[in-house]
Structures are given as C-alpha cells and as structure tokens.
Amino acid sequence: MSVATIEQPLTIAQLKADHEVTVYLTRSTQYLGSLGFTEHGLRHAGIVSALAYKVLQELEYPARECELAAIAGYLHDIANMINRYNHGGSGAIMAYAILRRLGMPPEEIALVISAIGNHEEERGNAVNHVAAALILADKSDVHRARVTNRDFAKFEIHDRVNYAAESGKLLVDKASRTVTLYVTIDTEICPVMEYFEIFLQRMIMCRRAAEFLACRFKLVINDYDLL
Q1: Average pLDDT in the chain
Q2: 3-state DSSP percent of the chain in helix, strand and coil, to 5
Q3: What is the DSSP annotation of 54-123?
Q4: What pLDDT, in 10s, does the model give residues 89-112?
Q5: Which stretch of 19-23, 80-84, 215-219 has the lowest confidence by average pLDDT?
Q6: With contact defined as beta carbons under 8 Å apart, do 39 and 149 qualify?
Q7: pLDDT at 215 over 90
Q8: Please, what sign has the CA dihedral across residues 85, 206, 33, 102?
C-alpha cells in the first residue's frame, strides 16, 4: 500500500525541503555552469514550479492538478547533473525514484514524470495538461539572472539573449483563452532576431502546449506582438 494517502498528499513545500532534491538541483547548476550553460538550479526550479502552478490555476484546474504541475516544474531539470543530453528522460527516471520514496501514488507519478520526460524541445510534446503547463513555464524563464558567465567578452548567443532580457512575464487570460509571454529586451545587447534564432523551436513548442490547453500562445517583445 502506498505511503501517501488522499488526506496527506505530497506537497511542493515538502519536496523543496527534501535534502536529496536540493543536492541534485544544486549540483546540476554547478556542473552546467562549468560548461558555460545558463543557470538550471534552485532559482530556475522555483520559478518554473510557480509558473506551472499558475498556468493551471488561472485555467481553473483542480488544486491538486496545479500542485502536480508545481512538483513537475521543480524537478524537471534535476538530471542536468548527469548530462545535458536527454536530461528530460533521465530526469523522469530520477523523479520516479524520489516521488516513490516520498509516497506519491502511481497515478500522480505518471503525470509528473511524463511531463518531465517531455519538456525538452528536441524530443518533447504536451502529452497531458501538466506537461503543457511545464513547457510553458520552462520556456518562459529568460532573464539575465540565469547567465553564469561573468565575462561579457566571452558571451555566446545564449548568454547574450538571456543577459539582454530585462524582464519576462507569462500571463494567462482564461476569458480569451490566451497565454502571453511578455519579454523586454535590451536591443543594444541583443537584437530581437537573435532571440528567434535560438528560441524559435521553443516558441513553437509553447504554441502547441497552449493549444493542448485550448488556448492561443502569444509572444510580445518590447511591446510588439510577434506571435
């Protein structure tokens, strides 16, 4: 019989307090940072978790479904400590072991790990509502705080785009069934075209994720509607 019960489901607060999870997320961003990648640790996990929750909450999904999206968002990049390649698939396997240890029932584990396994743009799809919320949340975190390289002279395109992003907001409007990503970019650092050069596939993925939730995805950069 599962350790978790209907009266005591696993919460995002419990997950954030788990030592094993904290270590893996911390090591993930340390290892990727040594390779020059943007931040994928506790900061990113917390932001994606909150945004994934918000997406489903704004669309009036049940509270427990929103919590599962938050859990998926918090764990989605945990396997970056193993390797960047296929970290979604590896992360789903890691999350399965962690969530099973913490007593989550298989019906909930299935939703969470399928979302984690489908968040990469190279091989992911919005296979359920939790996965759709995770995709939208993950691809929306573009901000200069994610840049780990402190030498501007050595910035590559991902560093420039993220460093140029001064703010980003993901807003959901249930009445009009739209999910809109608002980004403010310093075009003296990075032209808008460079954003599309590296993020076009991600924006297409967001559009499909929004469509899964019966919504339309919009991208607004510097007050201009681009998608």
Answers
A1: 87
A2: 55, 10, 35
A3: HHHHHTT--HHHHHHHHHHHHHTTGGGGT-STTHHHHHHHHHHHHHHHTT--HHHHHHHHHHHTT--TTT
A4: 999 999 999 999 999 999 999 999
A5: 80-84
A6: no
A7: yes
A8: negative
Closest CA to 74 of 141, 7, 9: 141
- For the sheet with 216-221, list strands across it: 165-173, 178-185, 216-221, 224-225
What is the pLDDT, as a whole number, of residue 3? 43
Residue in 197, 147, 151 with CA at minimum distance from that of residue 38 = 147
Full-model pTM: 0.88
Sign of torsion over alpha carbons 92, 171, 168, 12: negative
Half-sphere exposure of 27 (CA within 13 A, CB side): 12
Do 43 and 143 touch, CB atoms closer than 8 A? no
